[in-house]
Amino acid sequence: VVTGATSGIGRAYADELARRGLDLILISRSIEKLHTAAKEIESQYGRQTHVIQVDFTKGPSIYPIIAEKLQGLEIGILGNVLIPGTKYLCWRQALSCNREQLSWSLCAVNNVGMNYAGMLVYFLDVPDPEKSITDVINCNMLSVAQMTRLVLPHMLERHKGLIINISSEAGSQPQPMLALYSATKVFVTYLSRSLTAEYRMQGITVQCVTPCVVSTNMTHNVEVGPLVKSASAFAYEALNTVGYSNYTSGCLLHALQHIALCIFFPGWLRLSTFCMRYTEKFAQSWRQEIEAMMARSAKKAD
Fold it and tell me: Which end of the chain has the least Cβ crowding within 10 Å, N or C?
């Protein structure tokens, strides 16, 4: 199961999982984009797909719909991944084997997420803050908890399962002018790490992935470069960390950036008056460029 599966990191994970021989359930907001993604995955990788159309900003009302549509399905890529000749499941081997070696695997990728329309902004300086705050919380926090609630019982029945929750580097330190988004990612990180402790003895792996900047619609398709990963490259490297780490930046480049940020740009500095003044000036100076990037991103999406 992959949420937010029609673009960005979610689509990249879907493609990479299909390439590695797994069938998929794709969940996202746009039915047209879901059908397009499903057809492309089936054509390119020869895997079966199911699609579920919901808007995660709508809150609790959507989860009975998802639960109903999951009933009766062998939940696409949900089941056990078994390696012939081994006694215990190894996710590292499972995600690198070919489809002839695969039985059904239980895997869920909680990727869906959103930010304000812009990059750096004061908490209340967004259009319709009441709606924006609710939408971000529903999409970034409630979705992870509720989707985990839906898939975890299936995993516990079979004593095997993999849940991948996409958090963010933004959740590793306080982020003024990105306050709500970074706070929601702290929730994802702490929930994931706590679930790891609760369920690992029952065969469940919960991995928390905390990327830095990846070129997606959320980052306005920023140009790939020395510090920026493409979504496809990131998903490939991040999946290769499964079985090695349950809390990961996803790739070596982002792990090095995380270390550098912790050393040279720690939380106390980000919260200082000096840094706030600089951040505000930076946001103002880049506002036109950000708006141009948003326009290009919207045009590309259309």
Answer: C
Superfamily (CATH) of domain 2-301: NAD(P)-binding Rossmann-like Domain (3.40.50.720)
**Partners of residue 238 on adjacent β-strands:** none
* 222 and 228 Cβ atoms separated by less than 8 Å: yes
Residue 210's Cβ-count burial label (10 Å; 0-12, 13-18, 19+) is: buried
Whether 213 contacts 166, CB under 8 Å: no
Residues forming the active site? 181
Q: How far is CA 200 from CA 105, 135, 192, 209, 231, in A?
A: 16, 32, 11, 17, 28
- Residue 6 CB contacts under 8 Å (≥ 6 apart), including other chains: 26, 28, 29, 30, 33, 34, 36, 37
Band of residue 291 on the pLDDT scale cut at 50, 70, 90: low
Instruction: Decide: residue 160, CB within 10 A, 0-12 exposed, 13-18 middle, 19+ buried.
Output: buried
What is Dmax (Cα atoms) for the chain?
A: 61
pLDDT cut 90: percent of the chain above it? 64
In order of 2, 138, 184, 217, the CA distances from 143 in angstroms are 12, 6, 11, 19
Tokens 């929730």 sit at which residue?
A: 187
Cross-strand bridge partners of residue 165: 110, 208
* Per-residue pLDDT tens digits for 120-173: 889 998 888 999 999 999 999 999 999 999 999 888 888 888 999 999 999 999
Could you state, in order of their start, the residue ranges of all structural domains in the chain? 2-301
